Amino acid sequence: MAPPVAAEVDGPVGTADARAKSGAQSVRSVVERILYLNARKHVRQTMENHWDINDPDVADMVVHLARESRKEEKESPKKGDAVDTFCEKLESVGAETSRNTADILMGIVARIDGIIDRLAPSKSPRAAGVRKRANSSDNKDSAFPGLSIHNETTKDRPELKLDRPEERDGVAPLSATAEHLILEEMPYRERVKYEREKKRREHERSMDRKLEDYHRRDRRRSRTRSRSRSRDRRRRHDRSRSRSRDKRRGDSKRSSDLQPLELYTIHRGTVQRVMEYGCFVAFRTQEGEKEGLVHVGEILPASSAGRSRMSASDLVKRNQSVYVKIVGLAGTKISLSMREADQKTGEDLRPRNASSSKSIRPGDSAYHGANSIPIGGATTNAAARSGRGSQTGIRLDLDQGAGSSSSSSSGRQAKQHLNDYELWEARQLRASGVLDASDMPDFDPRNREETKEEVELEVADAEPKFLAGQTAKTGVILSPVRIVKEPDGSLQRAAIQQSTLAQERRESKQAMQEQVIKAIPKDMSRPWEDPNPNQGERTLAQNLRSITMSSTAQNQNRKHGAPTGVSYGQRSALPMREQRESLPIFKLRSQLLQAMAENQVLIVIGETGSGKTTQMTQYMAEAGYADQGIIGCTQPRRVAAITVAKRVAEEYGCRLGQEVGYTIRFEDHTSPETRIKYMTDGMLLREALADPLLKKYSVIMLDEAHERTIHTDVLFGLCKEAIRQRNDLKLIVTSATLDAEKFSRYFFDSHIFTIPGRTFPVEILYSNEPEEDYVQAALMTVMQIHLTEQPGDILVFLTGQEEIDTACQLLDERMAQLAPMNPPPLIPMGVYAAQPSEVQSSIFEPAPAGSRKCVVATNIAEASITIDGIYFVVDPGFAKIKTFNAKTQMDALIVTPISQANARQRAGRAGRTGPGKCYRLYTEKAFRTEMLPSAVPEIQRSNLSNVVLTLKAMGINDLLGFDFMDAPPVQTLINSLEALWQLGALDDEGLLTKLGRKMAEFPMPPEQSKMLLASVDLGCADEAITVVAMLSVQNVFYRPRDKQAVADQKKSKFNSPEGDHVTLLEVYKAWSRNRFSAPWCYENFIQVRSLRKAQDVRKQLIGIMDRYRLEINSCGQDYNRLRQAIAAGYFNNLCRRDPNEGYRVMRDLQQVYIHPSSALYQKNPEWVIYYELVMTTREYIREVCTVEPEWMPKIAPNMFKQADSRGISRMKASEKIEPLYSKYVTNPSQNIDGLTRNHESLLRYHDRDALRTLARRKC
């Protein structure tokens, strides 16, 4: 291509003197001039890359022509006009372009336009990259420019494009290593079945290839029949000779690459499994793939130091590429040795025959795992050689001086951290000659030196540049969204008082349990009172106690009246067709399809149980919408997506996963034949990340939109934009409440279609006076209904598991007290999320004749499930919701009053079967004045870091300009951006980094994504995947009420000094060693359902890591690396031990406490990082892990820095100095506080003079 000639045009073109003169006469500011020069610099770089031209005059001309083209496009907006105009202008100034060059110019113009949009100055006074909206009345753009950065597309930033492997039938193939890791997660029978099925598929593909080759040769022969015989004979001779030559060449090549299966031959292989006694290595020979055992004594040479003290996991890692030598053959068993083969060159270090002297070259085609690593486990890329990880840029030298671990601390005592007071005391005693250096508690006898002093950390008060002056660090305080209408009302007072009442009930229950314990014989109760009993004594006492509680815990009323059969949902004896036709929506089928055809967006209002979720998708498929694309239906809950998909597949007459399937996080049951797809709203949001226009869908149905989850609200805006660009896309929004007008106004004043439900009149009864204890009021109302009202089941709404369990227990006790009066049986049934599915399904069973069922449920029974037979509803008016405090960066579950819409929804549950009654345990005035009209959307009360990261990955940087139905609080958005910047997902300009783009691909919070990517750099991805999978499930351990001590003893076997994360890892490893046994879980009080779910999550994470070619290595027992990876993701949750009590969060100095269920409870490590913080009676931190303070400035430089030794840190300034002695204390033992006890421990083994000195100082 000929370079364009600089022409005389208006603007910054011409000679350098002319440009200087023009710049001097211009009214541009200094900032605008700098931005323009920066833009020209990027344009010159782009021109040099694509045109091989580096001329500033030509760059000025290109900028000017591009601006003119964009200006003309705004005057006549048509798709592609700017690019065509730009090409024409380039040709008019002498650019000779061919047709192929024109295609390249399209991409160049796109990149130049993106550069100009971000960097070039404009005529309007605004910050670079900030889009000014037309609505000048809204001043948020100017006040918060970090929230209104210009949007971008993937073409603007090609460096963020991730390499994805090619997919076959919509599924990315797994590498050999990933497939091996997933096979290890399968039980033996499933693994054999999988390998058999894999061989069958490979055989079928081989037969297909052979058949295709046969037909190809047959066609070739038919074409050559007309040729002469001599020529044909010569050709056959040449072909035969060529085949022989090729065969000889192939045989010689294979024989040179692969060694035969003989003694003393050297092969290259990959470590498959690491055991305590050695490792198994897979390798290839001329006879095929083999596997042998390398004993731990055959890994290192005999002269290696410390060889006898090392285990196999310290020497090799899984998926590591090694050279092995066959030293023994006994049938199918192969003994291998690594110490007789050079691990760098493959040469034989101890030749025993001629063949073994051949060395394997590193380039030979031996067995290579997809993620194989060299011996020692060190990565060889440039990033690793520079000391930083290739994925996150994390420092790889963190383990230097990191303290002791289970693998590196042999022969060395653990470091003991001392605070300033203890160090001063120890130094004074040492200076006076009382203590020797070897007597100091932090002395290392191996290195003959003292451990370094404690590292003092400070929180770096650095702000990202794009949020300068907008965060709370500069004094910006914004009011949060109010989730309570009347903070001083009777409902809010009752909600606050309920926590105190719940504490009193717990204390009363504990007192009753202690009385039962005291009733045990003295010799058995003594271990129970002993805080540190001998192992087994407390367990024996607990077992005796559980024997005495055999049948008294459950009264005869409940035991004889409870349903005996267990079924998953309510079953009907009617045929499937009659069941579908009995639903209210069936009568409106034709009208509904007509409304869908006439409207691109349709709002459907229907009561729960009307059939809109299960029938509408089938109606659309029968009408032909599935022929144009998939019919997608979102659900706010995973359980709902699974159960609805199973029901629709049953009605549709297909196997689940074929024509009807579902997708939830870490689980995909779809296929290329899927026509109807149910999924969680979060999964559709992740699909929009790769395809914003959702091109593979013909219909999108947003079900249960009234719940207003975070993902549903974001999907509102994305689907609204997709509809603007796709005329063939249909959008259906369904809701169970009557707030359709708001949805209609948001979606272009769309049509509303109402499905009348099978409802009966419901009588509403209000309380005359406000109730202080709504739990007791609800139980009294239930007893009144049961004893005075007509037959019919009762539905009670409470806030959580603790209240539900307490209510069921109290109902049992009260019915037992009324047993002499012979009342009709009452069957209390609790429903909450943590229950097993078979227990939840029992609520659908009808009550036995002559008895009444009382279902005590959370707000899940408002709209998500339908229970027939309910005639009475007891509504205290409260629900437990999750809220995010932007100031403390903490999620909390708090009890708040419900909205008026929720109250109407609860009352409607009583009119499903017949006329019913709703008992509202609050006044009518409170309903009208203290309840919000509708619930506060989740997007206004939750942490939005994950949502913001997803929007950034889609190129949506203007968060204020995004079309939310209800905009989230500005404070929450700013905190989310700041947290992402600290994690490294955003740069100083507020744009997504390559690390942030990778983090967006993981369906999990950004902290866990960063943890996984850091584990790749640190070589512990295998363990980190397991930890993340275990954290994704809840309630791994369970404590039966009558066997709590036994369960605690079983759990203590897995406790790790590194913390709860490693404890969960050890649990999963133990389960794997026991072949994923369910009886083993029952024996150790571990929920097998949780472990199986964690196993499924682990498989999915392995697939995601393999899809983006991330190495999955194991760190063995070196848990320092794992702890560093955890700290890389959760450094924001760093805590330090408070000298008085508990811990202080470094971020805001909030006082927290380790949860009693933690493995570190009462261990009191100096520095910890927690996974979550919960508020009950105290602020408890759960899933706690120990860390070293010297890691933090390297892991999180934007968050922490080492404190200045010349000053005092904020943490030290907040500490209180308490007196060692006070004459006002009546108990003399209280004068010796914890600090003095530590001093006394320093002198435990020293002379009496030092003890006398300490005693005199106390007095």
The number of E-state strands comes to 30
Number of discrete helical segments = 42
Mean pLDDT across every amino acid position = 75
Shape: globular
In which range does the helix fraction lie? 40-55%
- CATH class of the domain at 1002-1209, named Mainly Alpha
Q: Supply Rg.
A: 36 Å
Termini separation: 95 Å
Instruction: Determine the strand fraction and express it as a percent band.
Output: 5-15%
Largest sheet: 8 strands, mixed
| Low-pLDDT ranges | 1-28, 98-106, 118-137, 252-256, 354-385, 400-415, 446-451, 524-529, 544-570, 1228-1259
Q: Classify the fold: give the CATH topology of the domain at 1002-1209.
A: Four Helix Bundle (Hemerythrin (Met), subunit A)
Q: Structural class of the helices, strands and pairings? A: alpha/beta
CATH architecture verdict of the domain at 1002-1209: Up-down Bundle
The strands making up the biggest β-sheet line up spatially as 12-11-13-10-14-15-9-16
GO biological process, one term: spliceosomal complex disassembly
Keywords: ATP-binding, Helicase, Hydrolase, mRNA processing, mRNA splicing, Nucleotide-binding, Nucleus
GO molecular function: ATP binding; hydrolase activity; RNA binding; RNA helicase activity
Protein name: RNA helicase
